[in-house]
Structure formats: structure tokens, C-alpha cells
Amino acid sequence: MTRQPGPLRIGNASGFYGDRFDAMREMLTGGELDVLTGDYLAELTMLILGRDRLKDPGAGYARTFLRQLEECLGLARERGVRIVANAGGLNPAGLADAVRQLADRLGLPVRVAHVEGDDLTAAHPGSLAAHAYLGGFGIAACLREGADVVVTGRVTDAALVTGPAAAHFGWGPGDHDRLAGAVVAGHVLECGAQATGGNYAFFHEAARSGRDLRRPGFPLAELHEDGTCVITKHPGTGGFVDVGTVTAQLLYETAGARYAGPDVTARLDTVRLTQDGPDRVRVEGVRGEAPPPTLKVGVNRLGGFRNEVAFVLTGLDIEAKADLVREQLTDALAKSPPAEVRWDLVRTDRPDAPSEETASALLRLVVRDPSQEAVGRALSGAAIELALASYPGFHVLAPPGKGSPYGVFEDVYVPQGGVDHVAVLHDGRRIPVPPAHDTVVLDEVPEPPLPQPLSHGHTARAPLGLVAGARSGDKGGNANVGVWVRSDDAWRWLAHELTVDRFRQLIPESGRLKVTRHPLPHLRALNFVVEGILGEGVAAQHRFDPQAKALGEWLRSRHLDIPEILL
How many CB atoms lie within 10 A of CB 252? Predict the structure, then answer.
């Protein structure tokens, strides 16, 4: 990849496996690009691909990517756009071969390379998939050797940007500030339309101002040699880019001030955002530090089997009806009770309701056990046998099935040199990628000074979301909730009001869990990490919202005393 004057324009066309199929074509035809990336992997995706590979050893990659390339590979070649994607999943070599076969069939002279070395499954007996999160220098090696398409397995999401940037600008492992800027750009791009108005807390304000949120465009970064960038999107596409949308994505699935990766640790507390024109946000000031001496490894394994049934309780005596069916099923399952039984009564009912649906509550029963029989036939038989022998109005949303397998995710760590990170080129050459030698053990950043508290008069009881935005997500069994405000006065209030104790009051589920608060003053934001709220990870479906996607919106809906001058 030869260095060119001006910024490197890197776009994104996928935030997850299943994202909008035609985004690749939209990004290639909508404006100028140098590199187009695609993020197809998540903790749950690795489990899904692992189960695919059990059925077919040649599987294990995102097949959607191949179908997209069938339509767009010629277009990318014609426009000189390099494609970098982690769609290789558990089988990057297999995907690279499939792309070569596709290129041959289409008559396109395309050089395809891949990155490997992340697969540590053999070192973790009993796991379905265990993969280290690699950095971007394997991608950089492929691009420097002329690759047109680079596919990887498990790399960090930001590596899809740091790799092309390092190749284009000639950065080395010691360029910490520049790499950190690229990490921040990559983190903003990685979830696609979440940076352009998708899933945005203040979407209603944007709609009232005339912005079209029905089909947000995908984001791109104009990345400069010094590591600064501008986040934007192609002209004429839907959605919008402003400081709020970029702030929201910066807080997504992060924790403290130090955002660690295999190439660099980016200091999120140094990020500065400014509006640089319509749909343009400048990102600058990012500082980087040497990466930690270890790499994160995501380990997925099958945890057992789960089943669930939702009983519909209608009208009067909701609590008594719930008590009756609980007692009946507990007795029916007493001979061989599942290892884990969880009941949740969801009060969606209203008094004197105008429809049967709004007069009804849901009682959810979720069971888990190592044995499929314990959660399958035993539960379904016991539940359905109550149909004529339980509470008045008995019915369920759907009869329970035979039980389905669920996964468990955990992260472990290995030394930076504990993987064989290799760039495999189009001509078969293999280039080893050395581990980072300059490393620093992660340490907590001292809490920054808070602003002076806001002097205010009267307060009003109102939802937090009238003042603050939020975005939440999952990391294994933990959830993060990033909360931000849009004015200095609101920050002076939020920084002192939304303490860990207040958070626990507003989110009672977190009451007995470890909650850590991380202030980020430059973003006027607080990031809360709630440990263990998601059990053993998204695949275990521990709670109603297994990925904590709406945890932030729940927090915004909670009422507290807010200064009237902010409302």
C-alpha cells in the first residue's frame, strides 16, 4: 500500500454478521474511499460459527461476505478500493480460498491475503472456539505486499482501521499517539450506522429537525498522518453525524479511560470532539500508551441446554395467579428439577384495560441444565398438563420446545508472544508479525477533578433522559452504560448527581453487583461498568435483555430531581 498525500478515507460496510446486505455497494458507489472495512464478528457470532464448523469443517466464516463480494468485487477493483474484513471468523484461510475462487470465476485479477494465528482452541480443551484478539500489523503487512482483499479471523474491531493506517502512513509499533487516534476512529466506525444516528438516544430531536433516520448511511473516517481524523458519511445518505452520535459510539462497550488493545492503549480521557461542519466531527488530541503485555482470548463453550415458557396472566389477581403456577410447576418438577430455575413476572398489565393484551402480564420461566431431557420433555409435559388445571385464563405465548443448547463466554489472557501472528500473502508467502515489545501493565487512571457543582434553584421530578443521553452494551458477563450530556452546566450537575450509589438506586439489578464509575470530562460523560449482570455472557441469555442493549434507555427513563434550569 503506497503512501499518498492527503487523508486516508476508510469506510465501514458492516457492524455485525447480518447487517444491511447492500451497504457494501452503497459505500463503494456513494463517494470516494481508499479502504472499505467490514466487522462481522461478536462474542455470540464466534459461538454460532463454532457450531457451524462442527457440522462442516470447511465452514466457520461469514458467508454473507462472499455474496456481497460477488456483487461488489469488480466495483471495488475498478475504483481502487482495498477491502479489509474480519469475516474469516474461525476459518480465514478457507474464506481467502473462497474469495480467490470467486475472483477467478469473475475474471478479476485480485490479490487475496489473510491473517491467522488467533486460533487457540487446541490450547483450551472443551471449548468450542478460543481465539486471541490480534492487532492490526498483520493486516498492514498484507496491504504493504499489495493485497487487494484482506480477510482475518478474530482481530480487535479497531484493527480493521489501525492496519490500513499503519500500512498507508508507514507507522511502526512505537507510534502510540497515531495508533491511538486510529483506534478511536476504528471504534467509532466498527458498529456501522450507530455512528450516523442509528440507536441514538436523541433520535426524536433529530427527526424533528428534518433528518431522515429511516435508513442511516454508513460512516467513514478521513484519517490523517498525525492520527487525527474527521468522522463523516457519504453525501446524500440518510442519518447524520454530530458530536452526540460520535460520543455515543465512543462510549459503547468501553470501560475506563484506558482502552487497551494489542497495538496500543488509547486514552479515551484525551479525546476531543468538535463539529467540523454538517455531518463532520473532528477527533483530535488522542494520546496513546504502550499496549499491555497480554492478549485477550475469547473462549466460547457449550454451557448446557435451556428452555423457557411465558405464561399469560390476564385481568385480576395477577400476583396470586403467578404464585399458583409457580407452586404447581415446582411440584411437577420436584423429582428431577433442572439445575437452574428462574422466574420473572413482567407487569405489562393495566387496570380497566381497553384490550385483552394490555390487561395481561407475562410470567417467564427459564430453566437450564446440562441435560437436554431435564429442560425439554420434562418441562414441556409439566407446563402443558396445567392447561385445564391452573389459574383462570391459562395460556402461554408458545409451548416450550425440546430445549436448545446455550453458550458460555469467558475471557482469559495469554502473553503477547503466545500466538503465532502471521500474514499469509496471495502468493503463499508467510510473514511473521512480531509481538509488541514495548508493553506496560494496565493500571487505573486516577479520577480526574470534577467541575464545580451546579448552583441551581428549584428542581423538578423528571426522567434523566430529558437531560442525558446513554448507550449500553456487553463485554462477556459485564455491561457498560455510558451517559453523556450536551452542555457544561448539565455536566456540572451530572458529575456530582449520578454517583455509583445513585446508579444502584436507579438500576436495582445492580444493587449487589460491583459497579465502577469512570468520568470522562472532555466528553462530558460518565461510563459505568456493572460486573456480572449478564451472567456468563450473551449466549447464556441470563436476563431479559441479554446484551444490555437497552440498559441505558432504562436508566434514562428513571426519574430523579433535576434542576429546572436544565429542563
Answer: 22
Question: 155 with 134: CB under 8 angstroms?
Answer: yes
> Under 8 Å CB-to-CB from 287, ≥6 apart: which residues?
176, 177, 180, 266, 267, 270
Q: What is the pLDDT of residue 4?
A: 55
3-state secondary structure of 166: helix
**Any idea what the Cα angle at residue 179 is, between residues 176 and 184, rounded to 5°?**
120
The pair phi, psi for residue 65, each rounded to 5°, is: -60, -40
**Count of all residues that appear for the chain in the document:** 567
Query: What is the phi/psi pair of residue 539, to 5°?
Result: -65, -20
7 SS3 class = coil
| CA distances in angstroms from 41 to 19, 355, 546, listed in the order given | 11, 42, 17
Amino acid sitting at position 223: L
CA-to-CA distance for 85 and 148, rounded, in angstroms? 12
411 strand-pairing partners? 298
Return averaged pLDDT per consecutive 10 residues of the chain, 567 residues in all: 75 97 98 98 90 91 97 97 98 98 97 98 94 98 98 97 98 98 98 97 89 94 98 97 97 95 97 97 98 96 92 97 96 90 94 96 95 88 93 92 89 95 97 95 92 93 98 93 97 98 96 96 97 86 88 97 96
Grid cell, residue 341, equals: 430455575
| Segments in 433-485 forming alpha helices (H) | none
Separation of alpha carbons 241 and 250, rounded Å: 13
CB 82 within 8 A of CB 10: no
Query: At which residue does the C-alpha cell 437436554 appear?
Result: 372
pTM for this predicted structure: 0.94
DSSP 8-state symbol, 348: -
